[in-house]
Structures
1.
Amino acid sequence: MNTVGYKASIIAAMGAGVLITSAPAYAASAAGQFNVNMTLTPKCEIFNGSGATGTIGNLGLSYTSFQTSASTASTNFAVRCTNTHGYGLALDNASITDGSTGLAYTLNLSSSSTHSSSTNASLTGLSGNGNTGQTYYVHGTIAAGQDGTVTSGTANNQRTLTITY
């Protein structure tokens, strides 16, 4: 057997194996571009700190017939809206007379915790500030000097607050 030829064959086979298993070397590259398309649907919602949406605390007013001073109470709620998105708030009615008790009362929508007996049923031109939310107040007032229509009674009037955005 020719050992020189045999050795040359082995070396050639080993070289071919190295060429097959080696990572190729790249001499050039190419790049492509693509767009990422996003769609944002703005949203506004009433929420509270626990994450529940659509929840506003009850407004409790107590009154004694012929009371010489107005009865007042307030409740608050938060609104979170897409950042910088415009919105407005509106109560369904600001002046109500309860059919069960015969007491007239007013509601005032405000961004201030200071009670006001005005009858501002809406706030407009508001702007969302994202996930933080903004706090608003509903102030209720039963005017002094009312008699009512029952000897003793309670009433529950469900009111509606609407966010328009």
2.
Amino acid sequence: MSPSTSTGRPTTPRRRSDGTSTTAGAASSGRATAGKARTKPNNQSRNKSAARRDDRRGFRPEGGSTAASNFAPKKPSVIAIEVGPDNGFVKLGVPANLAGIIAAGGVTEPFSIQSVTLPDSLAGRDVLGQGRTGSGKTLAFALPLIARLATTKVARQANRPRALILVPTRELASQVAAVIDPLATACGLRV
């Protein structure tokens, strides 16, 4: 004879996914279950330490590192070389320390867009330039920006941006940051 519940209905043993068996039948309230085993409520079945997820920026679980830090670009070491007054960037008015950083990267003569825009942008005038990929546009706007920020004696507010560069994609933003970072580091600025 098979076991029965208080209502007289027969119960059938059911096997859970964890290997334990339960009996499905009438619930304690007198209603019959639809063949499903009763389980713990969601909040009790979870591991308490794994239930909390921390999405704060820079959060590192104990003993580990964030996945983003594994792919973060390494900080480049800033090495400037001595440049003379015959350097193409120095002739355009770029400060010698910035020209030395650029020369250390292998660029000693400005591209055409840089030759046209740098004198005006270093003088503080607005400039609009258009060029193909790889034509030197990033340095054309980055050099005057870094030179201006490095020489301005305005009192800085802590943790406030002093410049904002808008680009359409995250990939382009990381490329622009990679170009600007060595220049800013040489001048004592953060990117």
3.
Amino acid sequence: NDPIAKAYGISRLADYLRVSNKLLILWSPDYLERLWCVYELAVFLRFHKKEEYCHTSLDRAVETGSRLHCMWYLCGDLLSYAMIASVLVDRWALSCSEEWRKFRSEVKRFSVRRAKCSSSEDYHTLTQLITDMYGSEESFAAVVRGIWLGGGEDNNHSTCLLSRTSLR
């Protein structure tokens, strides 16, 4: 409850994000509704190029890792591995496209005001910091929409587990 310690902690988070090379976002449907996540994204994008972040669906990452582990365990020869992999990739691509549509829908509706925070004091501090960095909450929302929706609303390709950048 110490306001000085809290301000110091928030500034340290910003410092850490400033010197980070990449930001890996493990997206879930409520990612843009959590103000601390929104603030983390705002800080990172303020000091880095948009190519320096990578996002993936949290559920998809867990599911893919589990499938790869099972395939490795169950497949004794290369042919079995290839057959199972092709079926799983087809199924994965279909479900990924649905997640991408949900993700795009969330981004289209994104507003800093919709983000929630359990502490009203933190809410006001974080929204003010975002406003200070971008001039207004709407300016930041436009940055977010521009990154994930592209220049136009017709950008329908999915980057579910694939990013335009590597994690190096």
